[in-house]
Write a structure and sequence with these properties.
The complex is a heterotrimer of chains A (119), B (679) and C (188).
Chain A (H helix, E strand, L loop, with lengths): L1 H10 L21 E3 L6 H10 L5 E4 L9 E5 L8 H5 L4 E3 L14 E5 L6
Antiparallel strand pairs in A: 1-4, 2-3, 3-5
Chain B lengths: L2 H24 L5 H32 L5 E3 L8 E3 L6 H21 L4 H22 L3 H19 L8 H30 L4 H7 L5 H19 L7 H8 L2 H26 L5 H22 L5 H28 L3 H36 L10 H4 L1 H14 L6 H14 L7 H33 L6 H4 L9 H15 L1 H16 L4 H4 L18 H21 L27 H4 L1 H6 L1 H4 L1 E7 L11 E7 L2 H21 L7 H20 L1
Antiparallel strand pairs in B: 1-2, 3-4
Helix pairs in contact in B: 1-2, 1-4, 2-3, 2-4, 2-20, 3-4, 3-10, 3-13, 3-19, 4-5, 4-10, 5-6, 5-10, 6-8, 6-9, 8-10, 9-10, 9-12, 10-12, 10-13, 11-12, 11-17, 12-13, 12-16, 12-17, 13-15, 13-16, 13-19, 13-20, 15-17, 15-19, 16-19
Chain C lengths: L22 H18 L3 E7 L5 H8 L12 E3 L8 E5 L7 H10 L5 E5 L26 E3 L6 H11 L24
Parallel strand pairs in C: 1-2, 1-3, 3-4, 4-5
Classes of the chains: A alpha+beta (119), B mainly alpha (679), C alpha/beta (188).
């Protein structure tokens, strides 16, 4: 009992200050990916959609503004497994975002317009 | 009118009832309507007799001992003498009340037929015999009446002799009753020979001249002998055997009254016949009462059969009454005559209360058995919806026996507690500690009693029915008037506690010579027991207050109804999709914590059998059996029974069947008689 | 109320129903938001409900009471009784066998009440609707706040709860998840 007390005094306050101050340990959390639209073509996008185990990625052809493809990314379905990042390390990186609460389901569905196949 | 006159009227009523029942009911070839009419008439007469007995009992409480009346000299040793004594006043009033209630109950409970007719005749004769015990003025009358009650009760228990376990239950009753009777005879004989008189009044007057050794011996024999009838542990084993097999009103009579005969006997010896003795007698009585109360309720918690459960509860209450008497004796030995008288009063109050609510509960157990077809608590459930009137009446009885305010059980147990708390006034630290231990045991018993009766009322009446028979129970044709009368009596004994205490204090003054009334009831509705500075309580105001506290919030709720924008949703049940009856508590699981805590007493044995040890649980039916070791039957009675059988076997060669040997016996005995006569 | 991090409009939760799209619903939502902040901002009682999850979300939720995250300092408390709860935190994909119990739990909560769907399963992500599961809590209960993650870390849970009581602004609506100069920012 006295040892526990002494140990507690030595270690000080371990409670996080979040949300008043950012939490340093948050840097190590697995997070959903961010996509570099310039480096993803249709073939890669297809492969990423197949790789995703929770069906968070979907490729909609010809839905973009200039007729390009759109990669629809459902953040809500993402489990941050990292397979898409492993498959395309340059094009897909960790976003580092963990504050993902949404007040509408639609806010979690992101459209990423891909580069056009034909310049 | 003289108390004895009332008792004559009661006897006449009951005697006529017996005759009408016997003649009208069991005459060969009688039409069914005639039989029914005869039984109804017999019950009306029985009720009238009961009313007369109540009047006689109350008047003997108030007006003191009547004169002794001699009736004929046909008995072998001396004449029969009767006297309406104050000490017996409570008991005779209780006898009358129970008789009226049972008379109202019998027509709807018993099927009209020759068996019921004989049963009712025997029952009314038992009432007469019990009245004779309470009004006996000399030893012979007492003993003859006592034995008559025992034999007649044996016949009552044997109402359905061909059913399972009936014969053995009745035999247990008779065997232990006779054993006790031998000891009672011995006790009376000691006192009668030492005091040179058979009359109880004379014995009481001369008892202080009897040497202390004989007095103590007589008291110990009486305590044990009457303890057999009252149900003191370990002399109690007949109660759980006999009560379930008797018809419901028979069980009500046994618990409500016959057990009180034992309490009356102990009170007779302790307070009327013998003067205040040494403290150890009182302590022994107190200890016997405490052990009985605790063990009684502990075994009650383990019973599934409603009637066995109630039988063990009777044992517990006998313990409470004997605690009161024992503590009274201890206070008397230390010179505190006010507390001596007060605890006698508390014990008598508890006798009246227990007789009332225990009879009620047994009658209702009979109603439940007839309506739902079983006495097993684990096969009942939800009866509050199917037997609404019985449920309310049983609730009154349950609240009474659990000693919850404002009902009568609370008043008498509170008085006993208040008396026990005065232990420090004896002046001896050791005695004070022992009395406090007894109070602690009583506290444990009361707590367990509440637990037991929550189980005893909740499992059969509340929740969902556990079997189809329970779901099909119906109140049509079930008797309600008899139990209803007893429920009203429970409430009256509670709210009218000042009146009851008035009557009892008059009776106690006649018995002990101590006037308690100025100490007890200063303002007319408040009770200050035992000692003016210790505590105070008003049962009447408490009843009014509790009713108000219940009614006022209901009125407030009704006045301010829920507003329009609130939503009514079902009760939160844990999100269960479908609640099944088997998900409920069963009687045994509800009392499982006591089996764990007190397993040194119960020594439960568990057997678990399954067809195979398939770890996936598909081995088929699992057989689980748990049994509580019947400690007294196995370790006390069975050795005694075996010893008696061994003795009988050893002696059997005398009955060889050889005539020549018998002639030799005759010759030897005559020779011995001559030799002894010559000496 | 201080809001740290997060750009974009603060769209708080509507009470006991889905956030509206039309302008009138936004006004109503704003009023309700203010009421929510007043009522629950300093003291919120949370009832967790597992509708068939793998229990990892439950472990993260349980960590919230540990000294490192300590949700009590924010005025949040766990309660087992729906009658005492303000917020229902639902995990798991809402298996069909649990639908009745979930509905009963929600009905047993007195209004105003908030429903938070927690974890990818509850958001309809991992298990599609089939004979075994409804595929997401939103099919059975009206959800106010959605917290993604598998499992959402305790910090994400804290942020979700604070968004639910309007103490933090919602951040994800303004994120694009398009890699730019800084990850997750709007590239304009």
């Amino acid at each position: 009992m006295p040892m526990w007390f002494a140990r507690g005094l030595r270690r000080g306050i371990v409670t996080t200050r979040y949300p008043a101050r950012p939490e340093p340990s948050a840097a190590g959390l697995p997070t959903p990916p961010a996509f570099d639209a310039q480096r993803i073509d249709a073939a890669l996008a297809d492969r990423l959609c197949e790789l995703c185990p929770s069906r968070a990625l979907r490729l909609v052809k010809g839905d973009g503004e200039a007729g390009g493809d759109v990669l629809v990314f459902d953040v809500g379905a993402c489990t941050a497994c990292g397979r898409c990042q492993e498959a395309a390390p340059g094009a897909v990186t960790a976003s580092g975002e963990f504050e993902l609460a949404a007040t509408a389901r639609g806010h979690l569905v992101k459209r990423i317009p891909l580069a056009e196949a034909r310049p | 009118m003289n108390s004895l006159t009332w008792f004559y009227a009661a006897t006449a009523g009951w005697g006529l009832a017996a005759a009408v029942a016997l003649l009208g009911g069991s005459a060969p070839g009688a039409a069914r309507g005639t039989v029914k009419g005869a039984l109804r008439a017999a019950c009306v007469l029985s009720a009238l007799g009961g009313a007369a007995a109540v009047a006689g009992g109350v008047s003997s409480l108030l007006w003191g001992n009547s004169r002794v009346v001699s009736l004929g000299g046909a008995v072998v040793v001396g004449t029969m003498q009767l006297q309406a004594s104050s000490l017996a006043g409570v008991f005779t009033a209780l006898l009358g009340l129970v008789a009226v209630a049972l008379a109202a109950y019998a027509p709807r409970y018993h099927e009209a037929g020759a068996g019921s007719a004989v049963y009712l005749a025997v029952y009314n004769l038992t009432l007469v015999a019990a009245l004779a015990v309470f009004t006996a003025a000399n030893v012979v009358t007492f003993l003859v009446a006592w034995e008559s009650v025992a034999l007649l009760c044996y016949l009552l228990i044997l109402r359905h002799p061909r059913r399972d376990t009936v014969a053995s239950g009745a035999f247990w009753f008779l065997a232990l009753s006779e054993t006790g009777f031998v000891l009672i005879i011995a006790a009376f004989v000691i006192l009668a020979t030492q005091a040179h008189s058979m009359q109880l009044d004379v014995i009481a007057a001369r008892a202080h001249l009897v040497p202390a050794g004989w007095r103590d011996a007589a008291y110990l024999l009486a305590l044990t002998g009457f303890g057999f009838k009252a149900g003191l542990v370990p002399l109690h084993v007949w109660l759980p055997e006999a009560h379930p097999v008797a018809p419901a009103d028979g069980s009500a009579f046994l618990s409500g009254l016959v057990v009180k005969l034992g309490a009356y006997g102990i009170a007779l010896f302790a307070f009327r016949l013998l003067p205040i003795g040494a403290a150890w007698l009182g302590l022994l009585t107190l200890a016997a009462g405490a052990v009985t109360a605790a063990i009684g309720i502990l075994y009650a918690l383990n019973e599934r059969d409603l009637k066995r459960f109630l039988a063990f509860s009777t044992i517990e209450n006998t313990g409470i009454i004997v605690i009161a008497f024992g503590a009274a004796m201890v206070f008397g030995s230390y010179g505190r005559r006010d507390l001596w008288a007060f605890l006698l009063l508390a014990g008598l109050y508890h006798v009246a209360n227990h007789g009332t609510y225990k009879s009620l509960l047994f009658l209702e157990a009979g109603v439940v058995e007839h309506a739902a077809g079983t006495r097993d608590m684990d096969r009942l459930g939800g009866l509050i919806h199917r037997l609404p009137r019985s449920a309310v009446i049983t609730l009154v009885g349950t609240l009474g026996i659990a000693a919850l305010p404002p009902l009568n059980g609370f008043v008498s147990e509170w008085l006993i507690f208040q008396g026990l708390f005065q232990g420090f006034r004896t002046g001896s630290h050791l005695i004070g500690i022992l009395i406090v231990l007894a109070a602690a045991t009583l506290g444990l018993t009361s707590g367990l009693a509440i637990y037991a009766f929550v189980r005893g009322y909740g499992i059969p009446f509340l929740g969902m029915p556990r079997t189809r028979q329970a779901a099909a129970a119906s109140e049509r044709g079930q008797p309600t008037a008899g139990p209803g009368l007893l429920a009203a009596a429970c409430v009256a004994l509670a709210v009218g506690a000042p009146l009851v205490l008035l009557a009892l204090s008059r009776a106690v003054r006649t018995v002990t010579g101590v006037a308690l009334r100025p100490l007890l009831l200063p303002g007319n509705l408040t009770v200050i027991p035992a000692h003016t500075d210790f505590s105070a309580f008003s049962p009447t105001y408490l009843a009014v207050f509790l009713i108000a506290v219940t009614v006022v919030p209901v009125l407030i709720y009704l006045a301010g109804r829920p507003r329009a924008d609130s939503v009514t949703v079902p009760v939160w049940d844990g999100g269960m999709v479908a609640f099944r009856p088997r998900m409920q508590y069963s009687a045994m699981t509800f009392s499982a914590p006591t089996r764990v805590t007190f397993d040194a007493l119960y020594r439960p044995s568990v057997s678990l059998r399954r067809a195979s040890d398939d770890p996936a649980g598909r081995s088929g039916p699992v057989h689980y059996e748990t049994e509580v070791t019947p400690v007294f039957l196995r370790y006390l009675y069975r050795p005694v029974i075996r010893a008696v059988e061994w003795l009988a076997d050893t002696v059997r060669p005398i009955q060889s069947g050889d005539v020549n040997l018998y002639l030799l016996y005759v010759f030897v005995v005559i020779l011995l008689a001559y030799l002894i006569g010559a000496l | 109320m201080a809001a740290s991090g997060g750009a974009g409009p603060a769209t708080g939760p509507a009470l006991g129903g889905r956030a509206g799209e039309a302008g009138q619903e936004q006004r109503v939502a704003a009023e309700l938001r203010a009421r929510v902040a007043r009522q629950f901002g300093r003291s919120l009682h949370i009832r967790t409900l597992d509708t068939g999850s793998c229990a990892v979300c439950e472990q993260e939720i349980r960590l919230l009471a540990a000294p490192h995250y300590d949700l009590h300092r924010l005025g949040f408390f766990f309660t087992p009784a729906p009658r005492h709860a303000d917020l229902l935190m639902v995990t798991g994909p809402m298996i069909r066998a649990f639908g009745v119990a979930a509905r009963k739990t929600f009905d047993a909560m007195p209004g105003p009440k908030i429903v938070v769907a927690t974890g990818a399963c509850a958001l309809g992500g991992v298990y599609p609707a089939d004979a075994f599961t409804h595929g997401g809590v939103g099919e059975v209960l009206p959800v106010d706040v959605w917290i993604p993650g598998c499992p959402p870390s305790p910090l994400a849970l804290l942020q979700g709860l604070l968004v639910a009581v309007d103490r933090l602004a919602e951040k994800v609506a303004g994120l694009t998840f398009i890699a730019g100069a800084q990850p997750g920012e709007v590239p304009q």
